[in-house]
Predict the structure.
Amino acid sequence: MQLGFSLPVFGKAAATPGGIARYAREAERAGAASLWVGDRLLSPVAPVVSYPGYDTMPEEFHTAQDPFTALAVAAAVTETAILGSSTINATQYQPANFARMLTSIDVASNGRLLPGLGIGWSPDEYTAVGIPMNERGKRLDDLLDLLETWWTRDVVAHDGVGYAIAESHVDLKPVRKPPVHLAGFGEKSLRRVAERADGWLPVWSVPEQFPADVLTSTLAKIRADAERAGRDPKAIGAALRVNAAPGTEPELIAESVTKIVAALEPDHTFVDIAYLTSSVDEHLDLTGKLLDLVAKG
């Protein structure tokens, strides 16, 4: 199994000077196949909508690194690990800047970027960036159109939602067209994955909160819908995030990861360990333990 891990972008470890670079470098040397970021702009004291499973927001979100900076830092100090996001709240960013940042990171990493995109759920964050939350679906569709143009044409022009790009030379292209994965479990979100994405971003929890067939049946439906849309269903991948609850023992995480990977057969799997560590040293220690446990089966 090719196992990856979250970069220390949330929690106390995220505040460590040079911590992301150190972790990325040493995790890759230890055998991490991929390194991942999440995206949290705000941790409101009294959120309009609380984080799922919490009365307010997790303490880890009080400290949050910029995901693009974290990916760029990781790109500079690694050579082989896939650099992914699960998930960047794509519709909270200005699209042209967003396209340029993704392209630059892919070039810096020599084609290792796997952009996992979503639309977010926090009204507070949308208010903070001045974007109407009720437009997020159409803004994501528009952004996907722009990325296709930005990555495949030398002259880019685009009439977007709330912005317009005049005909412009965009000669900086990714090393290879990054495989865009999309998050979501709702009907519209899953249809968008089937019709437009290169892959899906499923999430698994430890301890387990639902049967594995919830994910396997959903992925099967996505691929069936993709085939009906005239796409190759086998080309629809999956990048699985495993969320481990605070206090979960490494042995249980490894056992659960092995189980879900055998059932779902994702292309990429990573463990989000932000809730389990409070320092870069702990992040690295747990990374090594999980790599060893999974390797032993």
